[in-house]
Specification:
Layout: H1 16-24, E1 27-36, E2 48-56, E3 59-64, E4 72-78, E5 82-87, E6 100-106, E7 109-115, H2 118-132, E8 140-141, E9 146-147, E10 150-151, E11 165-166, E12 194-198, E13 217-222, E14 228-232, E15 238-242, E16 246-249, E17 261-262, H3 267-277, E18 282-287, E19 294-299, E20 313-317, E21 319-320, E22 326-327, E23 333-334, H4 337-346, E24 357-358, E25 384-393, E26 396-403, E27 406-412, H5 420-432, E28 441-445, E29 452-456, H6 463-469, H7 476-495, E30 508-510, E31 516-518, H8 530-533, H9 547-552, H10 557-572, H11 584-592, H12 605-614, H13 625-635
Parallel strand pairs: 17-18, 18-24
Antiparallel strand pairs: 1-2, 1-7, 2-3, 3-4, 5-6, 6-7, 8-11, 9-10, 12-13, 12-16, 13-14, 14-15, 18-19, 19-20, 21-22, 22-23, 25-26, 26-27, 27-29, 28-29, 30-31
Helix pairs in contact: 7-10, 7-13, 10-12
This protein binds adenosine-5'-diphosphate.
Adenosine-5'-diphosphate (ADP) binds next to β25, β27 and β29.
Length: 638
């Protein structure tokens, strides 16, 4: 414990007694941590802010720190009001870069603070406990978070409900929260077999942890530690892995054979299908944006139903209890999801209506070119009708058109603009890539000159224009949804080992129903314009390029991640140009000096933290899209 006596600056207005008092208070510990908003008002939004915390013998204060500016105190908690200080043990994803939470309960408020590492967290918890041990303390506390109207540990719905675990005013929850390298005897404490999927590669740092390979499945042996879970790989090796690198799969998630399950469908599309069906109790089960989580979407005509305005569709997340049972309504627990659905097909039991009519996708109407067989990407010009011009780009004019009864966008490739033979070789792969958040390439027309590429038509044009045209009118939900849409598409591209190479708001398009889709993936490889493709060229997208791309043209999934950081910045500045008024050379110099784009005014702290993560100098320190998607999804409701 620090013994240093700090002489606080005393304003002339302060009384003599106050100054003496202040001089006697001794700083015990101080440092920068992240705090979650306490949401004192029901309507206040949840956010995560970096604050400079100081614990002295009188109180715990936290202040805003701005480079070159004085600290601005944002809060002060008298130590005598503190009722509990303890670590938070949770396996929920934490939407800020500090992953080690602890709680300070004072008056009727829960303050969640996030430390950068376990050592730091332990120091703070120990110091705070020491200073508050003679207070009137809780006898029991909640070891997990209060979230979405429930305690994640005991599922009580009263925020001030008595805790579910014995609170000790000395020491900390060592039984639940081990330091970063957990002791190996804990490994086999969970007996039931649960499966997890690796969200990204992980290389071990010691001999007790296990390497992870992205998208591989592992058996989960122990998930009781807040950071390190024990898993077993297919060869029987066991070890610790960081839990944020894996997502738990439901034990029985192969639902393809059930008519009520639709795998790859968005919330918006689900609503459209259910509304089109227009039957009371029409429903489907779909993958939630959170990996390993499922959502039941159900349509009702019930008058006065408590659903969103203009929508008669309600979405329920299938939750898992502490005893690994599934439920929609807390009282009705089932060991498998099909059992749960079957029960709710007969009983509303807490739902707005019972699940009456499973709705599935009308596969006939799909235009999915994944059904094309090899070489069938050739579009017959007789089937293609060309209409008016909708834009022009690197390859030439873009026209609106009709193909097999669908509106399409046709890119007419100007002679000499594209390396056509190379593109034809790649076309098969590109037409096979199919995702609801990618602008679909339906095929190409190669027998006529100019060659033309036939794409899904996107009514509202490029995202950069869309953002600029709606400045000041875009809600936080809309901005976040745009980032989520694009991270979904990018996670899909990367899972197919496909690198975009030119991700930016100008290369994303907006559909009729405001969905954002990624376009022009991989297309820069076929551009025959050195000004565009060479990092020395005047059209090279410097401001979206990572340092390794600028220096060595080293494109990778992680250079796409860098560009995604800039993309998020574009979204949250409503379409501003990054590094406006700065020459490319100045940008490169600033990046080398570690300077990054500033936080857009509209970006919540948690989103800014993700941007900065994408702009880590070393590519391997940047997150994968799977992880970004996971983090962004945890910031949205479902
Ligand atoms: P290029 O790939 O030749 O550089 P772009 O993709 O930049 O061309 O397209 C130029 C413009 O054409 C876009 O800004 C947009 O307005 C329009 N456009 C492109 N693709 C589509 C599409 N699929 N649907 C609707 N409009 C499109």
């Amino acid at each position: 414990m620090l013994k240093e006596v700090v002489y606080l600056s005393v304003s002339t207005q302060e009384t003599h007694m106050e100054s003496v008092f202040a001089m006697l208070s001794r700083v015990i510990i101080k440092g920068t941590l992240i705090k979650k908003s306490q949401q004192k008002r029901r309507t206040s939004p949840c956010n995560y802010k970096e604050r400079f915390f100081v614990l002295n013998t009188q109180d715990l204060t936290y202040s805003e720190q701005r480079p070159g500016k004085k600290l601005i105190q944002k809060g002060c908690i008298e130590l005598s009001r503190i009722k509990c200080v303890e670590m938070v043990c949770s396996d929920l994803p934490i939407p800020c870069c500090n992953k080690y939470p602890f709680q300070v309960v004072h008056d009727n408020y829960y303050l969640y603070i996030f430390a950068p590492d376990n050592d730091c967290r332990q120091k703070w918890v120990r110091a705070l406990k020491e200073e508050t041990k003679c207070n009137e303390l809780f006898s029991k506390y909640h070891p997990n978070f209060w979230m979405e109207g429930k305690w994640k540990c005991c599922y009580q719905t009263e925020k001030m409900a008595t805790g579910c675990q014995e609170y000790s005013p000395v020491g900390y929850a060592t039984k639940k929260c081990l330091p970063p390298t957990p002791d190996t005897e804990r490994r086999l404490s969970d007996t039931s077999q649960r499966m997890v999927i690796a969200l990204q590669d992980y290389s071990p740092h010691g001999n007790t942890d296990l390497p992870l390979q992205k998208d591989q499945e592992y058996i989960l042996l122990d998930s009781s530690h807040p950071d390190w879970w024990t898993v077993q790989d297919s060869r029987g090796n066991t070890g610790f892995v960081p839990c944020i690198y894996i997502a738990e799969k439901s034990p029985c998630n192969n639902f393809n054979r059930f008519e009520w399950y639709i795998k790859d469908i968005t919330r918006r599309r689900a609503e459209e299908l259910l509304i089109k069906e227009n039957k009371e109790g029409a429903f489907m089960v779909r993958d939630s944006r959170l990996a390993g989580v499922y959502t039941v979407s159900v349509f009702t005509k019930a008058p006065g139903s408590n659903v969103e305005k203009n929508s008669q569709v309600k979405h329920y997340q299938i939750r898992e209890s502490v005893t690994s049972m599934f439920y929609l309504a807390e009282k009705y627990l089932f060991s498998t999801i099909p059992e749960l659905i079957q029960y709710h097909q007969h009983n509303a039991a807490g739902l707005i209506t019972r699940l009456r009519h499973p709705v599935s996708l009308d596969k006939e109407s799909s235009l999915n070119p994944a059904e094309h067989s090899e070489g069938q990407w050739e579009v017959d010009p007789l089937e293609l009708t060309l209409g008016e011009e909708v834009g022009s780009g690197q390859f030439g004019l873009v026209l609106q058109g009709q193909w097999r009864g669908h509106r399409v966008a046709v890119k007419m490739v100007r002679e000499g603009a594209m390396s056509e033979e190379d593109f034809k070789d790649e076309a098969r792969v590109m037409t096979m890539l199919s995702h609801s958040k990618l602008v679909q390439l339906y095929g190409l027309c190669t027998h006529h000159s100019p060659m033309c590429l036939v794409f899904e038509f996107m009514d509202q044009g490029s995202l950069s224009d869309f953002l600029r045209a709606r400045r000041g009118r875009l809600s936080q939900d809309t901005l976040l949804a745009m980032c989520l849409d694009v991270s979904e598409a990018m996670a899909y591209l990367h899972s197919n080992n496909f690198i975009h190479r030119d991700l930016a708001a100008r290369n994303c398009l907006v559909s009729e129903n405001n969905e954002v889709k990624v376009s022009d993936f991989g297309m820069t490889r076929f551009v025959l314009d050195d000004q565009y493709t060479s990092s020395q060229g005047s059209k090279f997208p410097f401001k979206w390029s990572s340092p390794e791309v600028i220096k060595y043209s080293k494109f990778s999934s992680k250079s796409d991640v860098w560009a995604f950081g800039v993309f998020m910045w574009e979204v949250y500045t409503e379409g501003r140009l990054p590094y406006e008024n700065q020459a490319n050379s100045e940008v490169v110099e600033a990046l080398n000096a570690g300077v990054r784009l500033l936080k857009p005014r509209l970006a919540p702290e948690a989103v800014h933290i993700l941007m900065e993560w994408c702009w880590k100098e070393k590519p391997e320190q940047r997150p994968s899209f799977a992880l970004l998607l996971h983090e962004l999804a945890s910031l949205s409701d479902l």
